[in-house]
Amino acid sequence: MDQADKTEPQAVARYSNGRLKKGSRLNPIGGDARTARMLRDLQALTPRAIARLGRLIESDNEQVALGAIKEALDRNMGKPKASVDVKVEASLSELHLEALRALTAKANEAQLIDVTPSKTEQKQGLIENISYRDTTERA
């Protein structure tokens, strides 16, 4: 069965009461009518497109000819697959350790803000029942 047979609407087998017979499907190709029309129209244009591509291959303009040749080969043989060989030399644990070192360096460079209440604030009772740690010591 060629592509033209798939896009043409066919009569659906029904019983005399109008119900579908067993095994019949209303949409056997799964597409909608618009897609079927588009495929039919593209099939009609295919011979002209191939003829035009053949003329473009014979073009005096080298870039046009090269583009047409590439298109013909890509359509016929498929686009070439690129392969890349990658080798990783670092271990995951080394990468984690380096990231931790970088974070530690950033933390050491950061300016700390001392939020310890002053003696006056403590005496006035502005801040109560909050424990503070000494921010000048670093672990």
Give your account of this protein's structure.
With 139 residues, this protein is an all-alpha fold. Helices cover 50% and strands 0% of the residues. The N and C termini lie far apart (78 Å).
Brief rundown of the structure:
The chain has five helices and no strands. With 139 residues, it is mainly alpha-helical.
* Oligomeric description of these chains: single chain
By DSSP, the count of extended strands is: 0
Distance between the termini: 78 Å
Structural class by secondary-structure content:
mainly alpha
Break the fold down into its secondary structure elements and pairings:
Layout: H1 3-7, H2 33-57, H3 62-77, H4 92-109, H5 119-124
Output the keywords.
about 140 residues; about 50% helix; 5 helices; single chain
